[in-house]
Design goal:
There is one protein chain. By secondary structure, the chain is α/β, with parallel strands linked by helices. The chain has a single domain, classed as Rossmann fold. It is built from nine helices and ten strands. A six-stranded mixed β-sheet has the order 6-7-8-3-9-10, with helices on both faces. Strands 2-1-4-5 form a four-stranded antiparallel β-sheet, covered by helices on one side.
């Protein structure tokens, strides 16, 4: 049984369908890449899965349970974590304090939350910056902090929104082992990304969407080499 099933997901703002009858799934431990041009509805699709935005129509199931009407905080507790395209740390708090906020979500024990925060920072390769104010972090470190804040909720599925976006090539190379380690640890991943070579180094399958609709799906290299993908958006990604 798939870990996540999105069936006919549609999000409309008036007459505009940002996500239009989107169906996709993720298997336990699978890394799924989602690609498409700017404005294709990729981030909105993640928000529908995370519960940050309500569906106009369609259904979302997680681990066999219908979560279509479940609020975002409940989905987080159920095992869905996410990052944001633009990192949003609490700038006056330390890196550790930023992650501790997420660790305390739904936990009664401060000591248990502290241990979870340390573990998440270690997995995100940011433990050596634990006591640094978030305002002093580089962009790569802020991206790592986003990952750590998602991991500390102990998710079974992590939604990554352009985690490599804005990074230099050496920084992307530094980040890749962190993302790859999520899958190797058994955590399912949905990764929206414009840095195609980063996706190809990690994901098992790619879904391509345009104008809110899926138009290609399958083996990452085959999808990216297809005429449909080349025609619709590859030029905007190079």
């Amino acid at each position: 049984m798939p870990l996540l099933e999105v069936e006919g997901a549609t999000k409309r703002y008036g007459a505009l369908a940002v996500v239009d009858d989107l169906t996709m799934h993720v298997e336990p431990g699978e890394a799924l890449g989602v690609v498409g041009p700017n404005g294709a509805g990729k981030t909105t699709a993640l928000s529908l899965i995370a519960g940050d935005v309500p569906l106009t129509s369609g259904r979302v199931r997680f681990d066999g349970q219908d979560i279509t009407r479940m609020p975002a905080h409940a989905r987080c507790r159920a095992g869905i974590g996410r990052t944001f395209q633009v990192p949003r740390p609490f700038l006056t708090m330390t890196v550790f304090e930023n992650v501790l906020v997420g660790a305390l979500h739904g936990r009664g024990s401060r000591s248990g939350a502290s241990a979870a925060a340390v573990q998440a920072l270690d997995r995100a390769r940011l433990l050596d910056r634990a006591n640094v104010p978030a305002a002093q972090l580089t962009l790569l470190e802020r991206k790592r902090l986003e990952v750590a804040r998602a991991l500390v909720t102990r998710p079974r599925l992590v939604l990554l929104d352009e985690t490599a976006g804005g990074l230099t090539e050496p920084e992307v190379a530094e980040l890749l082992p962190t993302v790859r380690a999520l899958k190797e640890a058994g955590t399912a991943v949905i990764w929206i990304e414009h840095v195609v070579h980063a996706l190809l180094a990690v994901v098992d399958r790619i879904v391509a969407i345009d104008r809110g609709r899926k138009f290609a799906e399958g083996d990452p290299h085959e999808v990216m080499a297809s005429d449909a993908v080349q025609e619709v958006y590859l030029g905007s990604m190079v």
